[in-house]
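Please produce the structure of this protein holding nicotinamide-adenine-dinucleotide.
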Amino acid sequence: MQCVNVELKERRYPIYIGEHLLTDSSVYPLKSGDKVMIVTNETIAPLYLETVANTLKRIGCQVDHVLLKDGEKYKTLDSLNQIFTALLQQNHGRDTTLIALGGGVIGDVAGYAAASYQRGIKFIQIPTTLLSQVDSSVGGKTAVNHELGKNMIGAFYQPITVIIDTTTLNTLPKREVNAGLAEVIKYGAILDYPFFEWLERHIDNLVALNQQDLQYCIARCCQIKADVVAHDETEKGERALLNLGHTFGHAIETHLGYGNWLHGEAVAAGSMMAAALSEKLGDLTHTDVARLEKLFARANLPTFSPDGMQPEDYLPHMMRDKKVLAGKLRLVLLKTLGQAYVTTDSDPTLVLEAIRACTQAD
Ligand SMILES: NC(=O)c1ccc[n+]([C@@H]2O[C@H](COP(=O)([O-])OP(=O)(O)OC[C@H]3O[C@@H](n4cnc5c(N)ncnc54)[C@H](O)[C@@H]3O)[C@@H](O)[C@H]2O)c1
Ligand SMILES: O=C(O)C(=O)C[C@@H](O)[C@H](O)[C@H](O)COP(=O)(O)O
Ligand SMILES: [Zn+2]
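Below is the modeled complex.
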């Protein structure tokens, strides 16, 4: 088992990474008599709910659960309210610990429920998708979507522990594994060129779920994110780098309707738009853009704008992005592979040209 710490002083917490951790009672920060509410969904429950509940019962916890509907389109206030109803019906108070068992959707909704139920209760993340293991379970961004924009209602709220059991990936559909690889590639592109090169050598093993490479990759991504979050928990500065491709990607997700393109797929295409703009600005070389595109393609990810979305469709969505300041877009761009920066003065004509460069002719 590996352990990465998120250094947030008195809110410091560990991320445990290893095989078969769902049944390892030593990684759960709970004791006999504690009350827990597990939030999961109808797909994950038959696979892992009993295993987790049994481990908690062995510790001596009182265990309840609530099942949400599966999918990005259920990352809503309504799902949040279902969690509150379950907590209230089963008389849970401020001493309850909420456990998110699932992917990023479950983690984001359950995290926001924990942040707001009775003004805040303890929260544990047990991520079961690659995307949630490398990204969403770490760092405390919690949210639900609004029909006009992704993650528009939420809070920064840190878990007390993250438990990553990498064997859960064995049941994950291939398309979801690939979507997780988009955020993995993002880390290399924004902050870690040696990791980007490592990915160029190992991406096929990751697609094939090679456990040894997965463990290394997940730990590396968690370490990169933990370092960024420790320096800038609430995105006043460098944390925005983790948003590479997301201003474009969130526009895709919202425009197509939540769940039609997976978050990771939208991030891959969005990152190519950011790369195209970086090339137009004279920073990224054509060779580097091609390397990024090839890596996404090897992970079976889209590198072009979706059919049925026009370049002009992007800007209204992009202007609602949470990074917009004083009515100005803030975009994450690449100086080189492994070095990202945030810009406030992107020329809208060039932005549109970059989107066009990633739009396939009919
Ligand atoms: N908070 C953050 O920092 C952050 C970071 C990145 C992404 N996100 C958010 O995360 C969400 C995407 O997360 P995701 O990619 O995990 O999608 P997801 O939560 O929708 O999970 C993907 C699918 O896999 C299923 N599943 C989960 N674990 C499984 C397993 N082990 N075996 C079989 N099926 C399993 C789920 O039920 C779902 O159908 C988006 O809403 C995105 O905005 C948040
Ligand atoms: O943790 C962060 O910070 C990120 O930006 C990680 C992203 O991968 C993630 O999708 C995040 O939810 C996007 O944040 P948002 O603030 O643009 O909603
Ligand atoms: Zn993301």
